[in-house]
Amino acid sequence: RQGEELERRLSRQRFEGSAADGGVVVVVNGRQRPVDVRLAEELPVSEDLARWVREAYDQAAAASLGQLTSELQEAFARPIPAEERVGADFADLGGAGAGPVAAPVPELVSS
Description:
The protein is an alpha+beta fold and 111 residues long. A 3-stranded antiparallel beta sheet has the order 1-2-3. 35% of the residues lie in helices and 16% in strands. A hairpin with a 4-residue loop joins strand 1 and strand 2 (24-29). The chain has helices at residues 2-12, 49-76, and strands at residues 14-19, 24-29, 34-39. The chain has 2 helices and 3 strands; from the N terminus they run H-E-E-E-H.
């Protein structure tokens, strides 16, 4: 559930990057997918155009990735309540304070 809600939020977010003194603007969503590219009317069409678009995209994607990282940490790095922890209570496995249960490790047999 948390993952689905996070994906919806990320899809709605927008991050801009620009290059060529603002002449090229690329907008990506929170999943680093381009959603808009804007070119200034006075922008010269030259062999630099592809590089400028890439620079603007890289800038927008970096901002998006930073936000994604922050949101993932917030969503999934929460303290886990004791009742949700796997193996949180070992009392059922051998009495109070029994600690982790160790299983014998089979010896390796070489042929």
